[in-house]
Design goal:
By secondary structure, this protein is an alpha+beta fold. It folds into two domains: 152 residues, Jelly Rolls (Sandwich); 64 residues, Arc Repressor Mutant, subunit A (Orthogonal Bundle), CATH 1.10.10.60. It has ten helices and ten strands. The strands form two sheets. The protein has a six-stranded antiparallel sheet. β1 and β2 form a beta hairpin.
């Protein structure tokens, strides 16, 4: 199920949500090239032997003319998709590619953009109802350009072996399913079936992040969801995500995202509060 959030000649933004129960697979071909910001965890295959664990810490880049299969790992599968015109995509890719094929322009399946970009995307998605076209599209182009820079800036090194790829994805899925856990490196290497040194090298090569940074970025993204829901205060969020205290969570969050969680929470909830106030005002005026 998808909901249209924004539409213009160059950009379409939609929210997707399904109560999949973790057992169904969905195969699809997109109507346009898309950047997908996952809100939940799922397994994605691209039909060419590439399979990854989609998660909120990374952005998927999906080609229009390619079939993808997704398998949610939990009860709910949700994401926000940014579908862009060929003109916009060429502007984004041309600085990095001499000859861009619009049939399948994305060479990389995912990217790990700066954590600040993930916050900016959340703020944009929450505030779409109150933003004008110039504000929205300027923010979209800035966010997607950051994703592309991250994709091409990642040091990928040598080709990973199938054993290394499977091991990294097993660890990535385990961390995503257990974000509150604080496993040791030997614990994770046992899950991967790799030595600790090989796991650390292969994980960073494949994801663009160290194991520690991936876990903290993922936790931060989950915290953003909890902040927008308004269901928990920051101490509860801290403890639910495996941090020992509010101060520990604040320290790590600021180090990763560049802002204190309280400041980000104000930015995320401001559009919601503005929309609520506008709705109340309109309801009052109609009486």
């Amino acid at each position: 199920m998808s909901s249209l959030l924004y539409e213009s000649d160059d950009v379409v933004i939609e929210s997707t949500h399904s109560d999949a129960g973790g057992h169904l697979s969905a195969s699809q071909t997109l109507l346009a090239h898309a950047f997908v910001f996952s809100r939940t965890i799922s397994k994605l295959e691209d039909g060419e032997g590439r399979s990854i664990t989609a998660n909120p810490a990374a952005v998927l880049m999906l080609n229009q003319n390619q079939r993808y299969t997704t398998r949610p790992t939990g009860e709910v599968d949700s994401s926000v998709r940014y579908l862009v015109s060929d003109t916009v995509l060429l502007q984004l890719l041309t600085p990095f590619e001499k000859n861009v094929s619009l049939y399948r322009p994305f060479r990389f399946l995912e990217a790990a953009p700066p954590a600040a970009t993930l916050i900016e995307e959340r703020v944009l998605a929450e505030g779409l109802a109150s933003g004008d076209q110039l504000d929205v599209e300027e923010a979209v182009f800035r966010i997607l350009a950051s994703v592309i820079r991250a994709a091409y800036g990642q040091k990928r090194g040598r080709m990973s072996t199938r054993r290394e790829i499977d091991g990294v994805e097993a660890v990535r899925e385990w961390i995503a399913r257990n974000p509150e856990a604080n496993p040791s490196l030997p614990d994770l290497s046992s899950i991967a079936g790799l030595t600790p040194m090989k796991l650390c090298r292969a994980f960073r090569q494949r994801t663009g992040l160290t194991l520690t940074r991936f876990r903290h970025v993922l936790r931060g993204c989950l915290a953003l969801d909890l902040m927008t829901s308004g269901a928990k205060d920051l101490l509860e969020i801290s403890l639910s995500l495996g941090y020992s205290s509010h101060s520990h969570f604040t320290y790590v969050f600021r180090r990763i995202f560049g802002e204190a969680p309280s400041a980000v929470r104000r930015r995320l909830t401001a559009p919601i509060e503005a929309a609520t106030a506008a709705a109340r005002s309109a309801a009052h005026a109609s009486r």
